[in-house]
């Protein structure tokens, strides 16, 4: 550092007559302080890496110039530029260095680049599309909303149906979406078979069983992790009896698959019809009529109910 | 000499006048020429045959005329019962080997080969691996060229030392002679030949060395450059030289042997020499590509191996990886997973690593048969070899049916702009990929799993690997060429000339080392340096070491720097290995530490049981032994060149300093200056770190290094602390301060310069004061 200052001093005194705007002593002290701080700061690893890379790339991109001793010797040997040897197609540039820093396979780098490019293109594409279809967008979101609502109504209708089928009573409350799990353990009373249950609300039970199975798996996992093996016998029994039913989830059930392939609106319509036909219950009036004609109900669909 | 030659020729002629004997079709009736009829009597045959040989005319070869023999004649001579070259009785083993030899693909084309060989001075021979070319062609030549009758030899070059040794051994067996007599080998630091040698296997580098003292290679009647497709530096230079030699010596025959099909390039280079191709004994190999590029090629490789083991029918697996560490790691992991698989019903899997620095005994294990099934009739066992690219061309392992190729190998790269020569993991070429795939089809139809997409194969891999000459520092080569009498380096006819900057850098380095003058002519120092089989920097260091009173020590150090790493650091015992290394550590750097190791190794205590001692101290016994041998060879050259062997007394406080100064005499161009946390190389301004293996602390301002290694970081390896005054003093021409770019290095040098000046002034003043006082 001391040398550097002396250097500056020397260069100024021999620097010739050109009149540079003079730096005031305060400015100089400030500048020197700043420079010293910059020098004494310990660079981070990333900076070092960056610096190393920069130095390497700069050097690699710079050809050895004619002032080099070896170049002068070659000139004396009759080298006039171009390539060495006697063939015409010999190389004039050194082979490029390619550093590999990871274990990516052949083609991985270009694959990454391709993906980045693709993503960029996709974004462009997306922007264009947005401009085109404001109407289309409205239509789509309307459909999405309807779909969601349809699903909610379907779950609700199934619960009503379940309630009616199980005890003939009307304890069903209309809720959107499937049950929260836990408090009401699955009610399958007529036999143990899922398949025996009315297809129209079977998904409801299936859903509960699935949730229950997940909960149990989590529970088992917790148990095995904590190595506490003091689960009470009664609980074990409960789990065991439940196992039998969750096992049914593994069984194939083509009926339910077909049913679930229908749109929510269709499924809802089927449940509503079932409710009317079997239980004289109008899902839309939320009322169980006593007569088969269902006097007083405006009709089958929601629209008819206004 | 000329007399006896005439005599023998006359004798041969006389014999060939006898109609029966000259008729090759009747030759079987006269199995061994002049020892006629004795052949069946074993007890007699030995003596007679031998005697006839000492008469100057070899038994079965007496009917042979140079460059006019036939395959049939050779067959008869080979059938014995006496050895056509020694006249001794042929052994049982010889005949059993002969039978296998006759089954080799090259054998079917012996006559065709001879026809072309006799007609043309230069011949390009293409034989795929497994065709038997390396062992058979030189013997075919020996039977027709009869080098012993001319007092000459047939030379066959190999790129690798190990290959030269093992092939020579094999051929000596095949010819039923003692290795080192009729058949020998010559590699750097080891000569296994005798005056009776007529067939000599040697490294290409060795032949190049010989050419330095004998520009026309007059000792040879035929030169065979084997494995030319590998395009080693020495082979490329030899081709350039021999192109001139064949014009000066019409009697010299030259055969270029290659295992791959780019042989047209050789043909074109050698003035349209005729080409003969022999198909290898290979089976079709089905090639599979991945659908997607792999995120981690090592992971993918291990997965593929295990999948093959779990699902494919019997057959061994060859996996190509890049280096020792990667290979050992993969072997460990595959072993673990294979145990798991065998519990699930798969057969046993034996995994063997294979790489250059592996001890020979362990290398040999790859030839062990695959393990038997766990129980009779159970799933077959197999072996899996995890190898560097040495298994690509040079080593033939039978039984390989599956090849897993991630597409990488460690390759040497050199860039003259930053003067770095390093081994880097790089993609292989298409030619290499084909070669690798071919390894699966040696025994029966096989499969090759490439861990990249077909698209990547087509678009990302270059056609041919770059020849070594394009990837090397040429300082040593330029010095050799100068000694070989090549004056016009610029127009020297190479098959693939390197970039001009590479030559520039080499000339510059040699000029700074004072091996070449400004006109590019060899200096005295350069001539002496070229006599050492060493890099110019090492040679110059060694030659100038007497000036620093430590040539004994520098000799040891040079030997140590010429052999593989002496420190062993197994993954399982890194900490203990480091502790052991600390026992030898010298605070001023790795060179001195290595020297301490060597001195300890030579101490009586260690020599009592050197193997155990090395094992206990985590040192490579092989490397140290090799260093000992190299030291001996170098010492002989020093004695020949009248270079004094001196030492500073160990008690002298300058003992170590002198050694460090002597290091500067050779390595002043490989110096870095501390710059904050990192170091900066002088002149090239590359930011580098001390390699983690160094014993040197981080507080040395100036360090000299043996190697600049590029990995994901720039490292300098094997470093020793030096003083800037020494650089200015010993490397004067290089440390011309004005020529340095502005920066930390220049500032440091200027400071040192001033300090030196001040010291001189002070001395001057003291002298004057002292003078006045008196």
UniProtKB/TrEMBL annotation, chain A:
Boundaries of every G-patch domain copy: 66-111
Region Disordered, annotated ranges: 1-54, 83-134, 165-187, 216-253
SMART domains: DUF4187, G_patch
GO cellular component: kinetochore
Compositional bias (Basic and acidic residues): 32-54, 124-134, 239-248
Gene Ontology molecular function: nucleic acid binding
Coiled-coil stretches: none
Composition bias, Polar residues: 221-232
Protein name: G-patch domain-containing protein
Origin species: Saxophila tyrrhenica
From TrEMBL, chain B:
Subcellular location: Nucleus
Stretches assigned to the Helicase C-terminal domain: 284-485
Chemical reaction(s) catalysed: ATP + H2O = ADP + phosphate + H(+)
Domain of life: Eukaryota
Domain (Helicase ATP-binding): residue spans on this chain: 114-279
EC number: 3.6.4.13
Region (Disordered): 1-46
Family label: Belongs to the DEAD box helicase family. DEAH subfamily. DDX15/PRP43 sub-subfamily.
Annotated function: Pre-mRNA processing factor involved in disassembly of spliceosomes after the release of mature mRNA.
Protein name in the entry: RNA helicase
Species whose genome carries this gene: Saxophila tyrrhenica
Chain's gene name: PRP43
